[in-house]
Amino acid sequence: MSFSFDHLVFFSNKPEEAIPFLIQKGIHAVNGGRHEFWGTYNSLTYFGLSYIEFLGIENLPVAEKQDENRLITHIVEHLAGKKQEGPARIALRTTNIEQLAVNLKAEGFKVYGPLPGQRMRDDGQVIKWSLLFPEATENELELPFFIQWEKSDEERYLELEEQGLIESHPAGKLQFESVGFVVHHLEQTLTTWGRLFDLKQGEEFADSSINARCRKLELAGTKLLFCSPLGEGIAATVLKEKGETPFLVNLTGNGQSEIFEMMNGFWRFQ
After folding, report:
1. Secondary structure letter of residue 15 according to DSSP
2. Which helix (H) or strand (E) holds 72?
3. 64/67 Cα distance (integer angstroms)
4. pLDDT tens column, 60-95
5. Number of separate helices (H) and strands (E) present in the chain
6. What CA–CA distance (Å, rounded) separates 233 from 211?
7. Distance from first CA to last CA of the chain, Å, rounded?
8. CB of 147 within 8 A of CB of 129?
9. What is the pTM of this model?
């Protein structure tokens, strides 16, 4: 079964406030819409079909009632509980979510879903999808959740272009090259994720800007970069303060090289 990267979720107290920060860096971003049944809303920035979602709580009593949607239970825990904003979880795209649920249950995971999802855009159109959440209690790093959109990739790309969601970025022809995760045990995490999702490992390398040893898993759309600290630095600080988590957005295509902190996550032009 093949997968594609779909999106990275940032938890945000005020998703709309992400937009001016991104625009200041030359990154096109827009308001998304509301998930009335879950009590949340979002803003978005797209890089082709790979995108970043800034998700916030609009109606806490509604969000607190969610149980099956583990992303919502997660955001309630982090925003209403720990008061912790920033990158939190990724979604992988699939075209066979029902069979995936069967496969993950056979692997011994507790599985929530598939669940129907929808969001109303500002123009009133309703976008629909299905979600699947696998959980493993022994894992500190949250597993990806899975999404299957109602429409094909080709249909979605054309619609997103027409809506102005997929649009050129002022900073250049930006691509969401990889999302970085900080972990305690690099080899163990790579082996687990690589086996579960049938992803090939790249070569290990040292990343001096975050002071970590890293290796990528090759995934269509946006690669997954796993890093373990080599000593004091960005990776070690994030691991100490937040535990195993996504923490880094790597963007290519603007001809610059810089790393900066924004919206409680790290971003890098490379």
Report:
1. G
2. helix 70-75
3. 8
4. 999 999 999 999 999 999 998 888 899 999 999 999
5. 7, 15
6. 6
7. 31
8. yes
9. 0.95
